[in-house]
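Task card 7
Instruction: Convert sequence to structure tokens.
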Amino acid sequence: MEGTVPHPQLAPRLQAGFVGFAADADREDDRVIALAMKVEDAMMLPFVMVTDAEGEYLGGYGGVGTPPALKRLLHDLGVPEA
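Output:
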């Protein structure tokens, strides 16, 4: 989620309540592995994860993020449409 979200329906939803963060998952790090294990299909990089302010995992998915997949995740998390 580096940079901007070009999809006009998703950008306002994400910008209103989320902070994008990128982690280097190419080197072994126990913290990254522990988080990745919570994503059911994290076998494939990249993956998208949503946590609360304390870092507690709320949801996510593996693979290249598409607008429909991100929209589905936001819906599943109860994020209102902008």
